[in-house]
Design brief:
This protein has 10 helices and 9 strands. By secondary structure, the protein is an alpha/beta fold. The longest helix is centred in the middle third of the chain and has 29 residues. The structure holds NADP nicotinamide-adenine-dinucleotide phosphate.
Length: about 260
Amino acid sequence: MTASHGTALITGASSGIGAEFARQLAAQGYDLLLVARREERLRALAAELQAQHGIQAETLAADLSADADITRVEQRIAAHGNITLLVNNAGFNVPGPLTKIPFERALEMVQLHVVATMRLTRAALPGMTARRSGAIINVSSGAALVPLPGSATYNATKAYLNMLSECLSLEVGHKGVVVQALCPGFTHTELTETQGMKEAGLDRLPRWMWQTSDAVVAASLRALRQPGRPVVVPGLHNRIMFAIATFPLMRGPVRQLVRRMMR
Ligand SMILES: NC(=O)c1ccc[n+]([C@@H]2O[C@H](COP(=O)([O-])OP(=O)(O)OC[C@H]3O[C@@H](n4cnc5c(N)ncnc54)[C@H](OP(=O)(O)O)[C@@H]3O)[C@@H](O)[C@H]2O)c1
């Protein structure tokens, strides 16, 4: 067993990248507070990681698109008093034009990606700055960096996470708190296996464009130890692609290419 680093609260820990954060942080000796809607999955993961690593792992079932549930998580953060790492990871996508996807689902996305992240960050930050140590990882996406038709709300909410992380890192970096926006590219998880994403053509992408959640989380945790990197893009292929796509002279050609590909 490794020495405890305190407690990591991970949202969306019931599958994919969030569950992988739980595994790698437990291996590093973090105690865990796991949040998502599917409580049986959280409980099974908590039991497995407690047995494997001798850490404490608690679960909290919450729908973070609902105000009342966000309030319960805020209260748990306050009652705990010592969350040392907050991973705002819970997220989803509903591919389709803005006027065609159900309004409720688009609103849920804003609540989950923007409102829940902002509220949980406000709840956890004061303790971290008072202790002059801690970290917040906001799981954003490469979608924050490149405009895509059929993904307006997803991309826009992820862009919020990048700017939130960059601003906060300037606000609290000198108080010992690291803030990171993690921008994965295509990653094998339940999200990319959904029927809607297959219909959007994800299963036609070449293999080299994909990463495992294991590699994505390892890159994020490595970068936490390298201060001054508020935006982290895991995977060399993603860094090259996004560097080209965000280079000012390339923005026009990239938009045309994306429009042609999405037709
Ligand atoms: N996979 C990719 O290619 C990719 C690329 C870039 C960024 N990302 C981002 O990575 C993050 C994790 O996604 P993933 O790929 O690991 O997908 P995933 O396997 O589908 O996991 C999504 C997690 O979010 C939770 N969640 C969804 N809605 C929620 C809600 N209303 N309240 C609480 N929890 C909720 C889910 O738990 P419950 O259903 O149990 O609530 C689940 O644990 C997301 O923010 C996603 O945007 C993924």
